[in-house]
Design goal:
The complex is a heterodimer of chains A (172) and B (629).
Chain A lengths: L1 H9 L4 H13 L13 H12 L4 H11 L3 H10 L11 E6 L2 H5 L2 H12 L12 E6 L11 E3 L2 E3 L7 H6 L4
Parallel strand pairs in A: 1-2
Antiparallel strand pairs in A: 1-3, 3-4
Helix pairs in contact in A: 1-4, 2-3, 4-5
Chain B lengths: L8 H11 L4 H4 L10 E6 L2 H5 L2 H14 L6 E6 L11 E4 L3 E3 L7 H10 L9 E2 L6 E2 L6 H4 L17 H6 L4 H9 L2 H11 L11 H10 L6 E6 L8 H8 L1 H15 L3 E6 L4 H16 L15 E6 L9 H8 L23 E5 H13 L1 H5 L9 E8 L5 E6 L4 H8 L9 E6 L5 E4 L9 H7 L7 E6 L4 H15 L5 H18 L7 H15 L3 H5 L2 H9 L1 H9 L14 E3 L9 H5 L5 E2 L7 E2 L9 H5 L5 E3 L1
Parallel strand pairs in B: 1-2, 7-8, 7-10, 8-9, 11-15
Antiparallel strand pairs in B: 1-3, 3-4, 5-6, 11-12, 13-14, 13-15, 16-19, 17-18
The chains are: A alpha+beta (172), B alpha/beta (629).
């Protein structure tokens, strides 16, 4: 476990972050010997992604060892679920909803415009790590379709002509 | 504020009476007047919060304080009112004045003109689009007139962050009644008699599910609430959890008593942070009151609930996949039988119910099976919540008795097609469902009727489409969704859907062979018959039903290389209308592909071989001289 921690630190994952994660694992009364220990895996991955921003391989190995399960199992779960990501997000993450309600109102055009202006595709991050684009399925705010979020901020009834204006807000 | 534990059913009933005054103004009950003169309810659902309803609350409180009214008027955040199109919603009680599209800066006017001056703020009242009259009360608005709220009964009525208000609204009384007056078998009988069927998709009778789990042997059992609302465009479960979280907990406890389970798990989408937060509060407060935990109401019955976050996988809405996900595995479905009622979570008997199904249960217990079964049709009892979205005027959440026609929902409640367009189709059941057309508008909505048409009830998403929607494109959209969400375990779903999608792509690109439709039909039927779980078994539905009702549109793509709705990019051509073009050069100057030629004051020409079909020329032309052919 210590060795895994070391490599992670070398790769720029901070020690305090691991301490935070360890604290969480203890707080859910995790038992490495329980036959049902995997039941905590997804909530621990959620927490880890919240702390680190993404789930790189080194972190997955650390979690696997800590939870007494195979790395392949952790990796299998991480790759299965859309919510988990192994690449870091940009400083500003643009999440465009492509749920049906948004789609029929032209969300695909909005997405294409973001992709064009930022020069990246959905799921990618710009070279300067400033922007990333995510495609999400229905955030349940269909009354505001087409809807997107930039980090926590929600933009409703967006047209593709609004894209430049939205990006302008994050110029800094 | 510390709340005292409630130890018996009698104490709970006393507490209910003592708290009833909290809702006095809102329910207009003379005997239960509250300490306040008015309640101002502000919608605190996800949609309205995104439109700054938190700022409205803050500004209302500031305006009240500035006028010395803080002790006389209370401002509360409630769950969703359903009329999301016109959000944020503000409701002033007891006079029941309903404000729409309120902005934070309107707070001052509401306090000064309405609360102090006694005159409702005219410009914020709902404007009836046909009569052009302002309607002050929600009960008189067409959107609400035909609705009947059972599952949504407390959304927009109570403050979802206070369990006391839930108790005031008869909350937890159903559990108390069941624990003191009913045997486990009697609960099953009641559920069977009520005719309640699952609201999450297939419509399996809830009573039968409970009966199977009750009869299954095992010292340990689980109640699981399926709150993995993955169908894009459906948001009723989110609204119930945000607006009335305790009703879900109470119904789970009733189910727990009935089947003999002591543990409940709510599997909820991580994309619903507000619902998660409200449920967490509701669980904590209910535990404090002794309504969850050990020896509930002195009955000896123990039951507790925890949340488990999903991680963005549509297939986890399928119950066996959901259970694998709770176990920390990839959310891949398993074959049934064994059904979860026999071998579910951790291989023990498990009862899985959907959020909306659960929300119906407390009223059924309090008002009786006969009351519930008197609503709806012969085989589809009660009400159903629909999320209206797409090209419709009144986007929002509506609850109507089963048997209401599509026309009533789309035109009377939904206000018809946005922008005055023509109704073309409505899709229910999301990626598992199918579409219905004009000829089905007068069909009463029931599980059986929708299935007979080739669609399904699903979770209740209802996406309305107008003549600008291409049905091949929409089928392709749904299939893209299924492709991405297929877990990959079984071949028909993993590979079959991919081939279906490729065929659809050739059609929308104008490269399809003449037998493409027949190929789609044959392959679709095979996928339906041979897939492992509900996802694969229903994934071809959007394709098959659009072929069934819009075959001519498919043929136009294949044979004439034309998209009648003008959506499919590769089949679209922009042309200059010669008698409208005045030669202003706006199109040519703005064309990013530099494919428009023509001199000033002369008719322009688009070189089709270079055109990238971006549509800029059309938006820039002020004379309507560019058309799509």
């Amino acid at each position: 476990m210590e060795a895994a921690k070391e490599t992670c630190c070398q790769n720029g994952l901070a020690k305090e972050m691991f301490e935070q994660l360890e604290h969480f694992i203890v707080s859910v009364n995790f038992d490495p010997c329980s036959p049902r220990r995997k039941g905590d895996l997804i909530s621990i991955l959620h927490k880890a992604q919240h702390i680190f921003g993404y789930l790189p391989k080194e972190l997955q190995i650390w979690i696997a060892k800590r939870l007494n399960i195979q790395h392949s199992e952790v990796s299998g779960v991480v790759s299965f679920y859309n919510y988990f990501t192994t690449t870091p997000k940009g400083k500003y993450n643009v999440a465009v909803c492509l749920g049906t309600a948004c789609f029929v109102q032209g969300a695909d055009k909005v997405l294409a415009e973001f992709e064009r202006q930022l020069g990246i595709k959905g799921g990618e991050v710009t070279e300067d790590m400033k922007f990333s684009i995510d495609v999400v399925r229905c955030i349940g705010a269909c009354g505001l379709a087409p809807v997107l979020t930039v980090n926590e901020k929600v933009y409703g009834k967006v047209a593709h002509t609004d894209v430049a204006k939205i990006l302008e807000e994050y110029k800094d | 504020m510390k709340m005292e534990r409630i130890n018996t059913f009698a104490e709970l009933q006393e507490r209910h009476q003592a708290l009833r005054h909290l809702l006095g103004l809102r329910l207009n009950e003379a005997g239960h007047k509250a300490g306040f003169e008015r309640d101002i309810l502000v919608c605190g659902g996800t949609g309205c919060i995104a439109s700054a309803s938190n700022d409205i609350v803050a500004n209302l409180n500031a305006a009240l304080a500035a006028n010395g009214l803080a002790k006389k008027v209370q401002v509360l955040k409630t769950g969703c009112f359903g009329f999301c199109e016109k959000g944020p919603i503000v409701l002033v009680q007891p006079e029941h004045v309903f404000y729409t599209q309120v902005k934070p800066e309107d707070a001052k006017a509401i306090v000064e003109e309405h609360i102090i001056g006694g005159r409702p703020v005219e410009r914020l009242l709902y404007l009836e689009p046909i009569t052009q009259k302002r309607i002050p009360k929600s009960g008189e608005m067409p959107f609400y007139k035909k609705q009947m709220r059972i599952a949504l009964r407390n959304c927009g009525l109570i403050n979802p962050e206070r369990v006391a208000e839930y108790i005031a609204a008869e909350g937890w009384l159903a559990l108390g009644k069941v624990l003191t007056e009913y045997s486990r078998e009697q609960v099953v009988d009641l559920m069977l008699k009520s005719g309640l069927r699952g609201r999450g998709g297939a419509g399996f009778p809830t009573g039968l599910k409970w009966q199977a789990a009750m009869k299954a042997e095992g010292a340990e059992k689980y109640i699981v609430c399926n709150a993995d609302e993955g169908d894009p465009g459906a948001f009723m479960d989110r609204s119930i959890m945000e607006g009335d979280p305790c009703s879900v907990l109470e119904a789970m406890a009733v189910a727990g008593y009935c089947v003999g389970a002591e543990q409940g798990v709510i599997y909820i989408r991580a994309e619903y942070p507000l619902a998660i937060q409200r449920l967490e509060k509701a669980i904590a407060q209910s535990r404090e009151l002794g309504l969850l935990g050990k020896n509930i109401l002195g009955s000896g019955f123990n039951f507790d609930v925890r949340l488990q976050l999903g991680a963005g996988a549509f297939v986890c809405g399928e119950e066996t996949a959901l259970l694998r996900s709770i176990e920390g595995k990839r959310g891949e479905p398993t074959t049934k039988p064994p059904f979860p009622a026999e071998k579910g979570l951790w291989e023990v008997p498990t009862c899985v119910n959907n959020v909306e199904t659960l929300a119906n249960i407390p009223p059924i217990i309090l008002k009786g099976a006969d009351w519930f079964s008197s609503i709806g049709t012969e085989k589809s009892k009660g009400t159903k919540v629909f999320a209206l979205a797409g090209k419709i005027n009144n986007v929002g959440l509506v609850e109507v008795p089963m048997g209401t026609t599509l026309r009533e929902v789309i035109f009377d409640i939904g206000g018809g097609i946005r922008g005055g367009g023509e109704f073309k189709a409505v899709q229910t059941g999301g990626p598992s469902g199918g579409c219905m057309t004009k000829e089905h508008l007068d069909t009463p909505i029931t599980y059986e009727n929708l299935q007979a048409i080739g669609s399904m009830m699903g979770s209740g998403g209802m996406i309305v489409m107008d003549e600008n929607t291409c049905m091949v494109d929409i089928a392709k959209f749904y299939l893209e969704f299924t492709l991405e969400e297929s877990c990959g375990k079984c071949t028909p779903c993993r590979i079959g859907n991919k081939r279906l999608h490729e065929l659809l792509c050739t059609i929308t690109e104008g490269k399809a062979e003449n037998d493409a439709i027949e190929k789609l039909e044959v392959l679709g039927e095979v996928i339906k018959k041979t897939s492992l779980c509900g996802l694969g078994q229903t994934s071809p539905n959007p394709v098959l039903s659009t072929i069934k009702f819009f075959r001519d549109e498919y043929e136009a793509h294949i044979k004439d290389h034309k998209c009648p709705a003008g959506v499919c990019k590769n089949l679209k051509q922009y042309w200059v209308v010669e008698d409208k073009c005045i030669g202003c050069t706006a199109c040519a100057r703005n064309c990013p592909a530099v494919c428009i030629s023509g001199k000033v004051k002369e008719i322009h020409f688009i070189d089709q071989s270079k055109c990238i079909k971006c549509g800029v020329c059309m938006t820039k032309c002020k004379f309507g001289a560019i058309e799509i052919r």
